[in-house]
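Ticket #4471: structure output looks truncated?

Reporter: J.K.
Steps to reproduce: submitted the chain below (350 residues) through the standard prediction queue, then opened the result file.
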Amino acid sequence: MDLARYTVPEDMSILDTMRVINDGARANAFICRDGRLLAVVTDGDIRRYIIKSGDLNQPISNIANYDPIFLYEKDRAKAEKLMRKMSITAVPVVDDGKMLLDIVFAVEKRSIVYPTLKVPVVIMAGGKGTRLKPYTEVLPKPLIPVGDRTITEHIMDRFERYGCTHFDMIVNHKKNFIMSYFRDHERKRDITFVEEPEFWGTAGGLRLLFGKYSAPFFVTNCDILVDADYEAILKAHKEQNNLITLVCARKKMTIPYGTIKKNEEGQILDLEEKPEFSFLTNTGLYVVEPDFLQRIPENTFIHITDLIKSGIRDGIRIGTFVIDEDQWMDMGQMEELERMKRHLELKGEL
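Returned output as attached by the reporter:
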């Protein structure tokens, strides 16, 4: 973000600040000194000043709010909820020294028209969910509640927005519990249950669908949510002519220490304070061609990652569609389940 579009010095005139607010088209200007956040002024503040016949050549500091609402970087995820609570349209993000790092603006609510893809979705729902104990000692992982709905219902909701209304759900562990839940649910969905006779890993059960599809289909784990453009994912898969496409999240990780590079004699060559690394991680959402199912051995325990590795060795086309890390939520572990709940609360989905 170009912060200069929204920041002004204390001695800028009110008239010139009006021009900054108008050019930025965000109804706010933030007063900074050497990059440090001091105050905020809104177009409403200026309008009220004009009504009182105020002098527009006076410095903006005369009418600015020197007790601005802000968030520290570690609390950035709370921005949307804070803006709703305080009825504001922007919140600055600062570091511990109140240096302005970013500005989060409220998203204007618009009516979104989603395309109708009519692509089937396979939900891998047969695992035991051991990482989510003790919840999964009572409930199967696909029925873990996230707010007032199960995780699987949240997944289905996202696909149904794009007209993907048929689901093939591969079940095994506590399968009768899962099937009964959806069959007895007041909201009826188009679900076909595919019963895995043994535990065949994250891909073995897909072989049971061999011969069913004649066009690409989505495959998703039952413990993830992806907020992305599913039409764009499908389009990229087709344009790349892939046999399988992995939706990958771009993750960033900061090492909380200074790292050192040395030569063979032990002399320091370089020192980097808190370096940041970026990498791609597999989200557990895929677009798959029917021919990919031929690569899965029958009645065999095998993970989809093993199939992907063998495909790389064989030279088949395996592509990626990259999303930002905040578009992917994984509840595979307890702490991640809590993060998912907080994220959905901020979006107003719980």
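Triage note (M.O.): checked the attachment and the full token line is present. The chain has a mean pLDDT of 89.
Status: closed, working as intended.
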